[in-house]
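Re: How this chain folds, sequence and tokenised backbone to follow
How to read it: Take the token row as a discrete description of the fold.
Start of record: The labelled sequence and token lines come straight after this line.
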Amino acid sequence: MAAWVNEPLALGYVALLLTAAAVVAYMSIATVRRRREAGRRIVTVLRCLSCDGVVKRGFREGDYVGKIVDEECPVCGGKMVIEAIYEEKAEPISNKILWG
């Protein structure tokens, strides 16, 4: 067995190195996951039962296709039903706009 294994200070350095590597790996994975989810948005499409007007809005907890919602049509004031729910990808901001 190696001589340094019996040294408590050496074992402490190894433990510190392994802990730092685990933290860096976790932060890298979390950053990738956050970037992947940042460009997404869930959209709910509402259709008026009277005039067939269409409105898009953000998804809300409890939304499902076919649900008649409490919101009124902005055109005729009629009742609206959820027609579709889907995910939109947000347009990425180019560096040219930020950096000139």
Observations:
- The chain has two domains: 3-38, 40-99.
